[in-house]
Amino acid sequence: MLMRRLAILGSKEDSLVNDLKETTLSFKKLGERYGVSRQAVHNFSKRQGVKRPVKPKGHQTEECRLCQKLIQISKKPHSEFISTYTIVKETGGSWEKYVRHLRTLRSKGLVNPKFGRLHSKRVEKAFAIYFTKRLPIDTIGRMFRYKNFSSVIRRHRELGWNVPPSLYVYDGRERSRIRSEIQRRKQR
Ligand SMILES: [Zn+2]
Q1: Which of the residues 47, 48, 60, 153 has an alpha carbon 20 to 30 A from that of 14?
Q2: What is the DSSP string of 60-109?
Q3: pLDDT band at 63 (very low <50, low <70, confident <90, very high)
Q4: What's the pLDDT at 58?
Q5: Are 21 and 51 in contact (CB under 8 A)?
Q6: For the chain, what is the radius of gyration of the CA atoms?
Q7: Which residue has the higher pLDDT, 94 or 85?
Q8: Are 149 and 111 in contact (CB under 8 A)?
Q9: CB under 8 Å, gap of 24 or more: what pairs does 176-185 form?
Q10: Is the pLDDT of residue 91 over 80?
Q11: 37: burial class by Cβ within 10 Å (0-12, 13-18, 19+)?
Q12: Residue 83 C-alpha to ligand 1 middle, in angstroms?
């Protein structure tokens, strides 16, 4: 087995020397590429006295599939309101896996600071309607069993979420109805 492995390597030695000198691929990865063990590549590299290039420090966002996928999702409109469930569903894998990558992306300013912080499917669904449909806020609230969806919107705004004004334009009568409704609630 060992003889065979070395023989295979033998015919590709020059190419392996190049890869060792020019790439930062691990001995394990190179072993897989050349059909030999990690240890065989390590020994070969030592025997040849190859000086390996230094791997750039830190996480390489541009080369990370997960980071790229997260950036792609974060470019969608109102992406702060995409819940973690949906992000996981669209990317596959587990949330634990993404948290670390997301933190890096946030610290580099490559995604919105609120992206990936929404953990409620209900909030996500309600806001998806709010952003796209011309419906009164109360109506959207009722659809998702919110007693007071306006306060949910206000709370998010206060915490720095980007919530645009409602698409629904309240006419004068509607406005006075709401005002008297608020008045009634206060008196209770
Ligand atoms: Zn990453």
Answers
A1: 60
A2: -GGG-HHHHHHHHHHTSTTGGGS-HHHHHHHH-S-HHHHHHHHHHHHHTT
A3: confident
A4: 75
A5: yes
A6: 28
A7: 85
A8: no
A9: none
A10: yes
A11: middle
A12: 19
The rounded Å distance from CA 40 to ligand 1 centre is 30
Other Cβ atoms less than 10 A from the Cβ of 85: the count is 14
pLDDT recorded at residue 106: 92
Determine if residue 109 is left, alpha or beta; phi over 0 gives left, psi from -120 to 50 gives alpha, anything else beta.
Answer: left
Q: 71 C-alpha to center of ligand 1: Å?
A: 10
> Between the CA atoms of 95, 99, 102 and 108, what dihedral angle is there, to the nearest 10 degrees?
180
- Report CA-CA distances (Å) from 187 to 11, 152, 180: 89, 22, 11
Task: List, for residues 21-62, the tens digit of each pLDDT value.
Answer: 988 888 999 999 998 899 999 999 999 999 998 877 778 888
> What is the rounded average pLDDT for all residues in the chain?
88
Query: Is residue 95 very low, low, confident or very high in pLDDT (cuts 50, 70, 90)?
Result: confident
Looking at this protein, which amino acid is placed at residue 82?
I
CA angle 114, 77, 115 (to 5 degrees): 15
State the distance from the centre of ligand 1 to the C-alpha of 25, rounded, in angstroms. Answer: 17
Cα of 99 vs centre of ligand 1, distance in Å, is 10
pTM attached to this predicted model: 0.62
> 84 C-alpha to center of ligand 1: Å?
16
